[in-house]
Amino acid sequence: MTDFPIAESGMFHLTPSGWTRKDRAPFPIDRLESWYFEREQPAEDAKEQVCFMRRWVHQGASQAVRDALHARFRMPYQPDPNRNLILECEI
Length: 91
What we know:
Blueprint: E1 6-15, E2 18-21, E3 33-41, E4 48-57, H1 63-73, E5 83-89
Parallel strand pairs: 4-5
Antiparallel strand pairs: 1-2, 1-3, 3-4
């Protein structure tokens, strides 16, 4: 049985081999983007809320390369009927 509320936060890093979760430095040396996330679900009958905020982008990585990786690996959490997903980009 899950205890509510559920709350979690951390960092995901987009690399050529997919998403890697590492919450503290040193971060993966091959990362192209870093995203901070917060996830919460206040009660069993409430939708899970996941907010991703892009915090860092490798300046040498082209937008096309990053777009291709996003198309291939998507986001670590996907929207579904029981989840709201919010994306924010600071950079």
